[in-house]
Amino acid sequence: MASPSQEYQPDPVTMVSYHRALADHSDSLKAYATRLLGDSIAAEDVAQDAFLALYRHLNQVPTAAFRPWLFRVARNLCLDQLRRRKFKLCLFRDLQKDDDNPFTPADAGSARPDQLAETREANHAIEAAISELPMKFREAFLLCEVEGLSYEDAAAVMGCPVKTVSTRLFRARQRFTSLVSRLIKV
Amino acid sequence: MNCNTCRYELSQCLDGRLPSGRRTIVMGHVANCAVCSAFWTELQAAQNLTMRLAAPRVSEGFRERLWERIAAGEGTPEAVFHERVPLLTKFRYALTGAAAAAVVLLAVTWTRGDREAPQNREPSSNGVVAKADLHGTPEPQRGAIPTSDVGMQVDQSPMMSSARPLTGELVALEAARQLEQRHATANLGIRRLKQNGFGQNTADRDMAVAQVLEDADAFCGFGGLLLDLREHDRLFFSDSEIEAELRVAVKLVRKSQQGVRNLETVRSLVEPALQSGRLASVSRTIMLPLSDPRDELDMLMRLAAMRHDVFPMLFITFGNIDEATREFDLPGNFFTMKDPCGQFLVAPRSEVEAGDGRLRIFRAHVNGTQGMTYEVQIRSGGPR
Questions:
Q1: Distance of CA A41 to the CA centre of its chain
Q2: Do B7 and A176 touch (CB under 8 A)?
Q3: What's the gap in Å between the CA of A65 and the closest CA on chain B?
Q4: Fewer beta carbons within 10 Å, N or C terminal of chain A?
Q5: Can you tell me the distance from the alpha carbon of A26 to that of B280, in angstroms, rounded to the nearest whole number?
Q6: What is the pLDDT along chain B (384 residues), one digit of tens a residue?
Q7: pTM
Q8: In this predicted structure, what is the pLDDT of residue B260?
Q9: Any idea what the Cα angle at residue B33 is, between residues B28 and B38, rounded to 5°?
Q10: Smallest Cα distance from B80 to chain A, Å
């Protein structure tokens, strides 16, 4: 860990924005990290590290740029983790999927058990399809299609031109569509 | 409209990024193209699927733990700003680095080239000694005598440090160079004799014959020295044909030394002996194995003693070091040699030409294609 920053006290307005970001983006940040890492526990750590980093850099990051900044930091942390524990990940991914059920459908409370099972199966298939996408395509797909970032913000997160994001997203959609074609037909 | 373009633009259309005019065109194509229409439907359905995808929630203690970390003064994780460098970028950096290194290397070489003479080459790993380049040619060249620093000032550095010990390699190279020189001179004399006609009996012709015989004798002496070294495995020829021709030439010239020596001797023995053009490149074919420096010294002493007639033809001896330091102001193209009487300085004759009270020391320019000549004025009189 890097040394803590100097005694910086954010002003109340910035802190309000920070709290709002925490409320709005913590889940999506965890979801993004989970889909990149395939590990929800590590993903939560990544999300927390990203918010910690944001707090330490509140004086440098404009309020409007909180979201892409957080995703950019989360991406860097995920890639760093993937590099370091490339092989461990493969070993434990399947175990974790059985033990953990992080993706709870929003309408779970009102659904019947058979509908719940069907939805759960569909979600697994979609998650599997996303995880099968190549890393570059997956990033674009997650940021734009799943998290709803604009092409410009996604380009800032991925560190590439907007045109590249557009192309990668198109390729990702092509592959994803072919992978989930069974679900679409149903 | 092309279907591929249409599909790409449909993807943008899904995100609302297509201008309305373009959108109309694309939708017009979709309406008429079954394949693109199916793709558009699938694309929308797939988007609906992902929109239904639930997001995982952070655990209940997420915020509390975060505030604890902030309150504890925990810093930003180091990996936050670790950007992944793409392979292409790494390759580009490597290329840039290599180019910069090459420029620096060239600059250093160029700068040193202005100040220094060609350096003595170290023995190569295969046991064969590479030769230094005296003539400024870029590739390694056999037959050149390694030289010491030309830029070294005698008054700034003791002569002992600038002079290097004479080696068997240097002796062999100098012998080969002198042999080639004598070979060329003798052949030139023979050609002139032919042009003037062998039959003319003039004083000039006798002088010319004497000169040819003298050159041939010197050739024989140098050739004999090289063959002696070959016999003792101190030297090898990379071209066996040249070795064979050298043996024949030396044998014929030795034969010419027996009995009366006149024009007929030149015509019958010397001319056939030296006519091969291959002998002009002996220095390029000799290869020298590495040897123990102690054996080297012993070999040199024996060589100087046994070949006392040839050795002075190869090297000019300047006397002992103390005397030379006082009397000569040479820039360093000389070597030290020991014998039972002490240590002496010697200079290869092929690089030193005496005349008119001057010693002209020929040095190569490291960057040029032609040798540079350094003229050094020395006092032939008493101590400086």
A1: 13
A2: no
A3: 16
A4: C
A5: 86
A6: 788 888 888 998 888 888 888 888 888 999 988 888 988 998 888 888 888 777 778 888 888 889 888 888 877 776 676 666 666 777 778 888 888 988 898 888 887 765 554 444 444 334 333 333 333 333 333 434 444 333 333 333 334 445 667 777 778 888 888 898 889 989 988 888 887 766 566 677 788 888 889 899 989 988 888 888 888 777 788 888 888 889 989 988 888 888 788 888 888 888 888 888 888 888 888 887 766 666 676 777 777 777 777 777 777 776 655 555 555 545 455 677 766 666 667 777 766 554 443 444 443 333 443 433 333 334 333 333
A7: 0.45
A8: 81
A9: 105
A10: 5
List beta partners, residue B359.
Answer: B354, B376
Q: What is the 3-state secondary structure (H, E, C) of chain B?
A: CCHHHHHHHHHHHHCCCCCHHHHHHHHHHHHHCHHHHHHHHHHHHHHHHHHHCCCCCCCCCHHHHHHHHHHCCCCCCHHHHCCCCCHHHHHHHHHHHHHHHHHHHHHHHHHHHHHCCCCCCCECCCCEECCCCCCCCCCCCCCCCCCCCCCCCCCCCCHHHHCEECCHHHHHHHHHHHHHHHHHHHHHHHHHHHHHCCCCCCHHHHHHHHHHHHHHHHHHHHHHHHHHHHHCCCCEECCHHHHHHHHHHHHHHHHHCCCCCCHHHHHHHHHHHHCCHHHHHHHHCEECECCCHHHHHHHHHHHHHHCCCCHHHHEEEEEEHHHHHHHCCCCCCCEEEEECCEEEEEEECCCEEEECCEEEEEECCCCCCCCEEEEECCCCCCCC
DSSP tag of A171: H
SS3 category, A54: helix
Residue A164 has pLDDT above 90, yes or no: yes
Contact map slice: B 58-77 vs A, CB within 8 A: 58-59, 62-63, 65-66, 69-70, 73-77
pLDDT confidence of residue B239: 82
Would an 8 Å CB–CB cutoff place B54 in contact with chain A?
A: yes
> Quick check: A5 pLDDT over 60?
no
Cβ–Cβ contacts within 10 Å for residue B208, how many?
18
Q: Are B364 and B118 in contact (CB under 8 A)?
A: yes
- Is residue A103 within 8 A of residue B53, CB to CB? The reply is yes
How far is residue B188's CA from residue B367's CA, in Å, rounded to a whole number?
Answer: 32
User: Which of A31, A50, A183 is the closest to B49 by Cβ?
Assistant: A183
Q: Tell me which amino acid residue A11 is.
A: D
A40: nearest CB among B52, B56, B74: B56
**Cα A135 to the center of its chain, rounded Å:** 13
CB < 8 Å to A145, chain B: 47, 50
Angle between helices A151-158 and A66-84 (to 10 degrees): 40
Q: Which chain B residue is nearest to residue A53, measuring alpha carbons?
A: B76
> Among candidates B266, B102, B282, B121, which has minimal Cα distance to B199?
B266
B79 touches chain A (CB under 8 A): yes
Tell me, what's the pLDDT at B374? 37
